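Hey, can you fold this one?
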Amino acid sequence: MKKIIDLRIWKATKDDAYRIAEISSEVAKEGMVKELNSSELMKIFSSEKYYVAVAGLNKEVVGYAMSTYSWGKLHILDIAVDRSRRRMGIGKMLIKHLISHALEKGLPVVYCEVGAKNIPALNLFTSLGFKFKIFSPLVAGGFYGLYLPIRKS
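Sure. Predicted structure:
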């Protein structure tokens, strides 16, 4: 893993939309996330149902994590890191940021769905303590539901 210098994570703003859209477009080609455009992101940023965090390296946005509040829990929807910045721990730091955010909000659980073939993401989430809860064959290749209890409900 490469050493990271000057990495910051913050709540995304409309100023970050263009770069998030670029990263989502790149990663969507790999089939890992839904591609987002700037106008979709503007709607997301104006909604209280979503929380988006970005990782910046030397002031350049290099990754993002998108989540929503559902069923009294924090649901991680997408996490993406610029291809040239992977294997540096940025994804892990983004997920830890979302876990901290959920704790601040008093939410008892963080959960996500990960495609069964997305071994890097499965390894990432399980390394942070997420447990397999369900497997669903509803989409091609199937997906796993992973949960991380963070406080007693």
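The helical segments are 17-28, 38-45, 90-105, 119-127. Let me know if you want another pass with a different chain boundary.
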